[in-house]
Amino acid sequence: MSSTATAVSDPSRRKKSRPRRRELREVTLLVAIFAVVLGVGVLRPSFMSFSNIEFMVLSSVVLGLVGISQTFVIITRGIDLSVSAVLGLSAMVFGLLSTTSSMPLWQALPLCLAMGAVLGCFNGFLVAWLKIPPIIATLGTYSLYGGLTFIYSNGLQVDQVSPNFAAFGNDNLIPGLPVPTPVLALAAVAAAAWFVLNHMKFGRNILAIGNNAAAAYNAGISVRRTLLAVYTISGALAAFAGLVFVAYTGSATATTGTGDHVELQSIAIALIGGTAIAGGRGNLAGTVIGSVFLSVVITALVFLQVPAIWYSAGEGLMILAAVTLGARRSVNP
Amino acid sequence: MRYLFPSQPWDRALVAILVALFSGFCILTPGFYNGFHGTLAITEEFLPFGFVALGLSVVILTGGIDLSVGSISGLAAVIMAILIKSYGLNTWLAVLVAVGAGGGLGWLNGQIITRLRVEPLIATLSTNFIYSSIAIALAGASPPYGFGHAFGELGTGAIAGWVPVQLVIFIVLAIGFSVLITRTGYGRRLVMIGYNRDAAHYAGVSVASVERRAYCISGVMAAFAGIVLASYYDAVRADMGDILLLTSITMVVLGGISIFGGEGGILGVTLAVMILGVLRQGMLIAGFSDMVTTMLIGAILLSSIAIKNLFSSRGFDFGSIIRRLSFLRPPERMTSRS
């Protein structure tokens, strides 16, 4: 608690040091990305080709979306392990619907957001009303939602999606501008999230709760309703990420999301991006750049022919490094 | 006799649930009651979860959590299999080494948590993936199998023809853990840390060293569970510990140990192990799929914490809901616990 205490007692110092730290993290990440791209590019020239760079950016979109939702949750001192299960369920449901009942995209999009919001709302209810610690609550719903995916899929798997889904996942929205639609979607979501967090009362409430929930409560912030909203947003964004995933890859199985440890990856990029695990401080730009960083590193490992089994170990090490190097943790005895 | 009967209301409720569940399955599910020995042998299917739960309760009593138990058990089993198959080590020596390795991995968790000051949740989530990567890399493509008859006795053997070896070991360990927690200075310090870290620190308890040992114990028990699983299946897979985590946490929490630490005992955990084990096996025998059973266990996990929070004055955030619902008192000041 001592670091919070000093920060509160000395607001001028805090104001000065905070922006500098944040810029530093983003610059560090960008430099690291360029270093990896150049370094691997020298060894394997095809790594630097336009198509590979486009692939790396495109494949970071899904992670970036989940990372933004995870950033919001972590700011409130929570954690959402169920994002991967929600992502998998959404990919499965709408992947199957797009082919079996040929659901158009404009119907799938709001339905998917609504489904994710309901699932996330349940998480929020468990955390805010039933006082279950976020880690346990979302571990429980992880198995619940994962089970739902298995039951819904019923042994089927998505191996193709309808053309308008595929177009949404791969083509350029604006003809002539070489930016695929998912990247634009991520940019829009990230901008909206940044605006909400930094320029809206709701976002300031989220930060206040993460800094000191008791003080926020005493200051008249409805802690429970804010937490409910945060988990609802998290679920909706995870479901949207699932839709983008199935549109982009055109495939989904019952272990999509949960099998790829998306929850671990999203926590990793939020922490790498400079969000404090102890809550109260979040960096959305860092999260987005962190998702590109993770995607670049994983692609680099593929190019360097590192066996796939080591990727999750690498992600685990990255989380530990980000947490130990980045955050000034409160000193517990 | 008074000492044998559980005194806590939560434990009494668990006994009632266990009796109801067991008799319900015996009557309603054909094939569940399979003679006295056959029914006892059902315990072999779920006691590995119980071993993990015993170790995990020590960690959860301190207010921490260990998410790496699944991968530690997988990695320990892989290490044992490699020592036996590739290096021709004596089976029991290999078991000893593997359990020691589990303790080492748990100790590493403790070091990361206490020295680098990483939250237990993040630290063990990360090491979970690191350990499982190592286990998969070590195990290679073909899982080792066939460790001999004597080793198989650990998982499937029965003493005098009807008491499963696993059950005997579990009862001995449960008594041991109960004595450790209630009758030793170390155990009291564990509970004290869970109840109030700062108070324990000011009372002169070396919080970090107690915690390190707690994670070490959890690692040892997870490794032992992995070895029992290897013995039961007579084969080793790197990912065979993955199923352990959710059920074991549920067993600990359903057993009445507060997820915030500092409350609960081993008797409740033992009862919860039996309840969830009977439920799991009963549902599998009744023909439900593994996924449905896992979903149900997730639901039990959530509802048991919710019920405990509803009736506990030491709630997570705002105190007891019951008191808030009565509108007689002003809302309690929230105490945030990280």
Please, what is the average pLDDT of chain B? 85
Count, helices of chain A: 14
Q: What's the number of extended β-strand segments of chain A?
A: 0
- Give the CATH class of chain A: Mainly Alpha
Largest sheet of chain A: none
**Given the structure, what is the number of helices of chain B?**
15
Percent of residues in helices of chain B: over 70%
Q: How far apart, in Å, are the first and last alpha carbons of chain B?
A: 42 Å
Spell out the helices and strands of chain B N to C: HHHHHHHEEHHHHHHHH
Q: Give the low-confidence spans of chain A.
A: 1-22, 328-333
CATH class categorisation of chain B? Mainly Alpha
The low-confidence runs of chain B, each spanning 5 or more residues with pLDDT under 50, are 314-338
The SS-based structural class of chain B is mainly alpha
End-to-end separation of chain A in angstroms reads 10 Å
Quickly count the domains of chain A. 1
Give me the secondary-structure topology.
The complex is a heterodimer of chains A (about 325) and B (about 350).
Chain A: H1 2-9, H2 11-43, H3 50-75, H4 83-100, H5 105-129, H6 134-153, H7 163-170, H8 181-199, H9 201-211, H10 213-218, H11 223-249, H12 262-272, H13 284-303, H14 311-326
Helix pairs in contact in A: 2-13, 3-8, 3-11, 3-12, 3-13, 4-5, 4-6, 4-11, 5-6, 5-11, 7-11, 8-9, 9-11, 12-13, 12-14
Chain B: H1 9-28, H2 35-41, H3 43-61, H4 69-85, H5 91-115, H6 120-139, H7 149-156, E1 158-159, E2 163-164, H8 165-183, H9 185-195, H10 197-202, H11 207-233, H12 244-254, H13 266-285, H14 290-311, H15 321-326
Antiparallel strand pairs in B: 1-2
Helix pairs in contact in B: 1-13, 3-8, 3-9, 3-11, 3-12, 3-13, 4-5, 4-6, 4-11, 5-6, 5-11, 7-11, 8-9, 9-11, 12-13, 12-14, 13-14
